[in-house]
Structure formats: structure tokens, C-alpha cells
Amino acid sequence: MGKLGDLANKAKEMAKGHPDQADKGVERAEKLVDERTGNKYDAQTDKAADAARRSYGGGRQDQ
Q1: Mind listing the pLDDT tens digit for each residue in 2-60?
Q2: How distant, in Å, are the alpha carbons of 2, 10, 11, 59 from that of 7?
């Protein structure tokens, strides 16, 4: 696997070990994209954030 794939696998493993911190990072990234795009792609960023959370077993408690 290439360097990018290895880096992605390491990030996923780290997120699995620290889901609360990973959730904060996903939330910040989602908020940043929404702010920069004027919430134009809000539904897509929600889906992407949910998929990212599922990949490491995280999730927001407020749902």
C-alpha cells in the first residue's frame, strides 16, 4: 500500500482508540466546510461526517 494509504490506516486506528477526540475533529471539519460554503452543501457534509464517524465507531451523543 502507498504512503497515503498507510497514513489513512494509521489515522483510522488512532481515531478508534480516541473516538471522543476524533468526533471533535470531524465536527470542526464539518463546521469549517459549512462556513466556507455558506451551508450550500450542508446535507453532503452531514452524510460525510456520519460516514467518517461510522468508520471508527464514533458518534455524536446528541442524536
Answers
A1: 888 898 889 889 999 999 999 999 999 999 999 999 999 999 999 999 999 998 998 75
A2: 9, 5, 6, 22
- Domain count of the chain? 1
Residue 63 covered by a domain: no
User: Does 26 fall in a domain?
Assistant: yes
Domain enclosing residue 30, as ranges: 3-56
C-alpha angle 15/9/28, rounded to 5°?
40
Residue owning grid cell 455524536: 60
Q: How many residues does the chain have?
A: 63
Indicate the residue type of 49. A
Sign of CA pseudo-dihedral 44, 45, 46, 52: positive
- Rounded Cα gap, residues 18 and 31, in angstroms: 20
